Amino acid sequence: MAKRTSIAGRTIATPLILSALLLAFALLAVMVGSKPFNQTIIDIFLRVILVVGLYVFVGNSGVISFGHIGFTCLGAYAAAWLTMPPMMKQTLLPGLPDWLIALQLPYWAGAILAALWAALWAGIFGKVLMRLSGIAASIATFAMLAMINTIYSNWEDVTGATSSVVGIPILRSIWPFLIAAILAVFIAWGHAISRTGLALRAARDEPTAASASGIDLPRERLIAFIVSGAIMGMGGALFAHSIGVVTPDTFYLGLTFITLSMLVVGGMGSLSGAVLGVLILSSLIQALRWLEAGVSIGTSTFAIPNGVQEIALGIVMVAILAFRSAGIMGNRELGWPKARPVAPATTGQQQPELNKGVSK
Amino acid sequence: MSAILQILFDALSLGSLYALGALGIALIFGVMRLVNFAHGDVIAFSIFALLWPSVDVVARVGAGNLPWFLLIPFVLAVGAGLSVLAELTVFRRFRNASPATMMIASFALGFVIRYFLLMLYSSRPKSISLLPALSQPVEILGARIPLLQVITILATVAILFGLTSFLRRTRFGLEMRAAAENFTMARMLGVRANRVIMGAFALSGALAAAIGLILGSQTGTADIQMGANVMLMAFIATVIGGLGSLPGAVIAGFLLGAASVVMQVTLPIDARPFRDAFVYGAVIAILIVRPQGLLSGRGTKERV
């Protein structure tokens, strides 16, 4: 026990610094006080939740997952089922059971249940998928995402198929999103320094030695999968409350790749990398959007043509990866100056196992 | 009888597309362990090359008006050229990067290509009439089969034969197979790494362009999203087939095509909209039973 508190003591700096950073973004939004900017910051917090959720599994296990946005989809629709006015559910989603139609919960209760719902499915899928490793696991998680997407795109009277489900209460305040993002950071940190998180990272870096030391890899992966599934589900619920509309295709390949990119550009093996990846790339996207809309310098307006935003984003991502192939943070975490990092930098050891094919 | 024949041809022509896509991905994975997510965008880029040099809102087919014996080499060269350019400007810098990093870099590159096309041509699909003579049906044993399906299948078979003999009979093919098997060893024995990788990219780009040609004449439109679906299925086929195994990729491509078509016909009406869910469920089942793929490539097994 004593040992564990000392790990927590040594590493608590990371979530605290990251929370302070997120708080700074929130205060910035309050100071600017404009509605669109507020929404921008909310979007950033949502992505922080999703990428941190992704980190819990991908970062600790080294297995790239393309499927986590499926849990976001589950969470978003669960939030819609739980928080929409019963009248609207009656017309839009008549296939729901009667008790669910009659139910209308506040958003926070809906988000908690959505997280549990996503975690339940993460457990069911994970039980099957976590026996796989490397690229086979990546593809299997993608197949899971595509299954969820196909079912939600076609199950007319329960999910409204591909048409938008409207009428979800919209949250305009920034604080619920900030609190959820900080909560996600602390859950991720708590998982990373727990016994199972350490075992999982050990197995990521040295699979043979870890299994020789009695680590049950599928079990540790399953735990990470469920924890990250819950965070993704919570993120999905809040996503639904941020825009008030859900469609299955919101939660498909586009969101999958943008969140994965943010994680890898930030540094796959590091919680700080996950958060910084989101903050840096989101700020860049926002800056380019402003340029696209036009910036007046003196009397003349300067604007870049439409489409340049995405192209520039792609080029910057390639450039960052070309110069820092392990991402901005690599394997390190933010800490107090001179404090010991969580995971000693073991560059070269942290080869994700894509190239190794399959372990038994 | 004719219904069965129709299903067979549907399955074969869909499978052909997946197989060609899977080959393009497996070729590159074999030599540099890169899962190339930009492949789908190379397909789209090749289709849009038919509209060159016009970028008007209303599609004016430019290069697409060439006679077929010039058109086909032109499009193949565009695909190969773009692919080689990608290797020279981007992937060359990622030789020692982890596969995850390379994957995201390829995705970012695909993003750049896609939005470049979007900037020039906008997102609305453009109608192109490419080789309209091919949409005539032909009668085979009482079944009316679109001529294009027959040509698709024949072209795929020809490409497969050509590629096989290229890989088996030429020195370059030998080097490529050696590099796919054990890259470091091949380099030590005098295989020039950059040349082999560039060759793989050129071949893969030409295959992508071939898919672009087939898709373009099948649908009569040029659409930026076009490559994405084929790429996903091809990617899955590559993994099911056993990463790095070219025959495996082809077999799995045809298998996926057959599974999609057969499920479309045999599933009960209520379940048909969910067909893809069943296909992906089958993918998971195959991976659970054979995680290393149907034919696992040598050199991809984990060594302890």
Description of the molecule:
The complex is a heterodimer of chains A (360) and B (304). Chain A has 360 residues and is an all-alpha fold. Chain A has helices at 2-11, 13-32, 35-61, 68-83, 86-92, 98-102, 107-129, 134-154, 156-159, 175-193, 195-205, 207-212, 217-243, 253-266, 271-293, 308-323, and strands at residues 165-166, 245-246, 295-297, 300-302. In chain A, helix 3 (35-61) runs antiparallel to helix 13. Residues 344-360 of chain A have low confidence and may be disordered. Chain B has a domain at 19-226. Chain B has helices at residues 2-32, 39-48, 68-89, 99-121, 147-169, 171-181, 183-188, 193-219, 226-241, 246-266, 275-289, and strands spanning 126-127, 137-140, 143-146, 221-222. The model of chain B has no long low-confidence stretch (mean pLDDT 84). In chain B, strand 2 and strand 3 (143-146) form a beta hairpin. In chain B, helix 1 (2-32) packs parallel to helix 5, helix 2 (39-48) packs antiparallel against helix 9 and helix 5 (147-169) crosses helix 6 (171-181). The longest helix of chain B is centred in the first third of the chain and has 31 residues, at 2-32. In chain B, the strands form 2 sheets. In chain B, strands 1-4 form a two-stranded antiparallel ribbon. In chain B, strands 2-3 form a two-stranded antiparallel ribbon.
